[in-house]
Amino acid sequence: MAEAFHLEILSPERPFYKGDCISLILPISDGMIGIMAHHPAMTAVIGDGLVKFRLPSGEERECMVSKGMFDISRNDARLLCDAAAEPEKWAEEAQRRKEEEARIEEDEKKARMDFMKTQLSIARTINALKIKNRNAAHAERPLS
């Protein structure tokens, strides 16, 4: 029986998997790579794609991941990715991420508009004060 190593598949939203596995296949920047226990230390950029891993019980699991990085050393492997989900949930997860990105973009646009409005308001107030000071200076001058 093959030896196990520890695997963590993590996204910012939630950990997808934390536990032991005996083999792992994942998409890296220049193809696919297979990992087993006692793999030499390595760090790699991962791309979008399907990750397959086998548990010590023999069960095979799959997940879809988006870009990120992979690191393994001393039988401890971490796959850090933007998103991870079961293949059948990937489409709805992608739609949810797209909606979230659109919401963030809209919030940023609103914040930029609010900032510009505030700058204009400050500029108008400064100009009004300058005019008021100028008019006050003229009013204090004696007429000859």
Detailed description of the structure:
With 144 residues, this protein is of the alpha+beta class. The chain folds into 2 domains: 5-85, ATP Synthase, domain 1 (Sandwich), CATH 2.60.15.10; 90-144. The chain has one helix spanning 90-140, and strands at 5-10, 15-21, 23-28, 31-36, 42-46, 49-54, 60-65, 68-73, 76-81, 84-85. It has a 5-stranded mixed beta sheet, with no helix packed on it. The chain has a 5-stranded antiparallel beta sheet with strand order 4-3-6-7-10, with no helix packed on it. The longest helix has 51 residues, at 90-140. The mean pLDDT is 90.
Structural key phrases:
single chain; 144 residues; alpha+beta; 2 domains; 1 helix
Helix and strand topology:
Blueprint: E1 5-10, E2 15-21, E3 23-28, E4 31-36, E5 42-46, E6 49-54, E7 60-65, E8 68-73, E9 76-81, E10 84-85, H1 90-140
Parallel strand pairs: 1-9
Antiparallel strand pairs: 1-2, 3-4, 3-6, 5-8, 6-7, 7-10, 8-9
In terms of structural class, how would the helical and strand content be classed? alpha+beta
List the helices and strands in order.
EEEEEEEEEEH
The CATH class of the largest domain = Mainly Beta
Gyration radius from CA atoms, angstroms: 29 Å
Strand order of the largest sheet: 2-1-9-8-5
Distance between the termini: 109 Å
User: Describe the biggest sheet?
Assistant: 5 strands, mixed
Count the domains.
Answer: 2
How would you describe the shape?
rod-shaped
Q: What helical percentage do the residues reach?
A: 25-40%
Note the beta-strand portion. Answer: 35-45%
The count of β-strands is 10
Q: What is the name of the CATH architecture of the largest domain?
A: Sandwich
CATH superfamily of the largest domain: F0F1 ATP synthase delta/epsilon subunit, N-terminal
Number of helices: 1
> Which fold name corresponds to the CATH topology of the largest domain?
ATP Synthase, domain 1
Unreliably modeled segments: none
- Look at the structure and give the mean pLDDT: 90
